[in-house]
């Protein structure tokens, strides 16, 4: 057997070994990909699987596409003045909830869209795309936006059923978690700015509605809220 033939056989065998190793590596990684998605998205992973009627592969394809589209997004930090304006608007919406819960929820929905846009996420006019991007970077709280958006649309008569006061209250409470997550202090904030801002917000929240727990009127009932 000539040297050339021997070399060719060695190359072929090496190629086969490399292909087999690559296939084994892909198989080994496949379960971890799902595990990584589940760790990254948390409850959003389970919600996506449920929306696909338990089809895990379809759900993971969707989540993977979200990461591919929005994973490289870098959130723009907010200036302290911007953050304070947004916080003041949210506090005003909370105060308005007692007398006009539907209008307050609609304002919370608009405010989340604006803040997300200011942080560099897709514009609020592209709700589904904005929601998908938020789910990649704020998976733990994104369902609050989904819920308050749905309730706001119901309140406007978009889907034919008006939500009750308790449903609106819970939606706004969940949305508050995402709002606070989006307003987290950036590295450009000084400790003084952060401390001053927190003190102002705590004072405003205490004075807004007596007896409130968790920044919202927990004691609110259907009898207390108007327009429900």
UniProtKB/TrEMBL annotation:
It comes from the Bacteria. The chain crosses the membrane at residues 6-26. Residues 187-228 are annotated as: Disordered. The keyword Membrane applies. It comes from Streptomyces griseosporeus. Residues 190-210 have a biased composition (Basic and acidic residues). Keywords: Membrane, Transmembrane, Transmembrane helix. This is Secreted protein.
């Amino acid at each position: 057997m000539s040297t050339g033939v021997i070399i060719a056989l060695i190359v072929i065998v090496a190629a086969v070994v490399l292909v087999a190793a690559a296939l084994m590596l892909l198989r080994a990684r496949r379960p971890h990909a799902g595990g990584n998605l589940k760790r990254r998205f948390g409850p959003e992973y389970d919600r996506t699987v449920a929306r696909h009627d338990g089809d895990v592969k379809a759900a993971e394809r969707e989540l993977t596409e979200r990461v591919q589209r929005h994973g490289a997004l870098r959130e723009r930090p907010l200036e302290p003045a911007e953050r304070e304006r947004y916080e003041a608007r949210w506090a005003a919406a909370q105060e308005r909830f007692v007398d006009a819960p539907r209008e307050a929820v609609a304002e919370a929905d608009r405010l989340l869209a604006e803040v997300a846009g200011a942080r560099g996420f897709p514009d609020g006019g592209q709700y589904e795309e904005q929601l998908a991007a938020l789910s990649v970077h704020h998976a733990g709280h994104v369902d609050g936006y989904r819920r308050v958006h749905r309730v706001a649309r119901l309140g406007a008569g978009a889907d034919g059923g008006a939500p009750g006061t308790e449903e609106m209250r819970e939606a706004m409470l969940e949305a508050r978690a995402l709002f606070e997550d989006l307003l987290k202090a950036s590295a450009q904030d000084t400790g003084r700015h952060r401390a001053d801002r927190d003190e102002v917000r705590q004072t405003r929240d205490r004075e807004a509605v007596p007896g409130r727990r968790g920044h919202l009127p927990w004691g609110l009932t259907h009898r207390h809220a108007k327009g429900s």
